[in-house]
């Protein structure tokens, strides 16, 4: 009987490999995004410190950069939340796969919904990541000002 149970779990283990790899990839995305958030926060603090000492001509440029950095920080926070939800739903998916296999429960709808949520959150996180890249270039353009040759 034990051998039969193990042979029934092998396909479940094979199925669980996909979400497990997804968790690893999302973990790297989370690492990247937390680093980006830290840099945006550090840059904001540095600019806020110079804002008090800035001349009237420099203030609008610094304030513009701070606005972009604030938008970036909020966007990165959303990216981190979506990526974490993706990893969490992948982990729950793995648990559901094992519980349904062990209990011989038909839960195709639940498994499909969890997979859909996982990928939907990942797509959202990657979309926000692309927006953050674009905002960081906008901040760079503000910082460089007239030095940019297009």
Give the structure's gist in a few sentences.
This protein has 150 residues and is mostly helical.
- The rounded distance between the terminal residues' Cα atoms is 72 Å
Count the DSSP helices.
Answer: 3
Fraction of helical residues:
over 70%
Proportion of beta-strand residues: under 5%
Q: Helix/strand/pairing class, anyone? A: mainly alpha
Low-confidence stretches: none
Question: Care to describe what's here?
Answer:
This protein is mainly α and 150 residues long. It contains three helices and no strands. The chain is rod-shaped. The model has no long low-confidence stretch (mean pLDDT 87).
List descriptors.
150 residues; mainly alpha; rod-shaped
Chart the SSEs and their pairings.
Elements: H1 2-51, H2 59-103, H3 108-144
Helix pairs in contact: 1-2, 2-3
């Amino acid at each position: 009987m034990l051998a039969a149970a193990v042979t029934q779990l092998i396909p479940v283990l094979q199925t669980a490999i996909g979400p497990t790899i997804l968790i690893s990839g999302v973990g790297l995305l989370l690492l990247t995004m937390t680093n980006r958030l830290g840099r945006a926060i550090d840059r904001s603090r540095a600019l806020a410190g110079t804002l008090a000492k800035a001349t009237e001509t420099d203030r609008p440029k610094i304030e513009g950069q701070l606005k972009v950095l604030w938008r970036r920080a909020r966007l990165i926070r959303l990216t981190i939340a979506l990526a974490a939800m993706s990893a969490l739903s992948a982990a729950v998916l793995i648990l559901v796969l094992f519980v349904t296999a062990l209990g011989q429960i038909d839960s195709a709808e639940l498994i499909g919904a969890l997979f859909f949520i996982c990928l939907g959150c990942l797509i959202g996180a990657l979309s926000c990541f692309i927006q953050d890249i674009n905002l960081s270039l906008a901040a760079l353009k503000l910082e460089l000002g007239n030095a940019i040759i297009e």
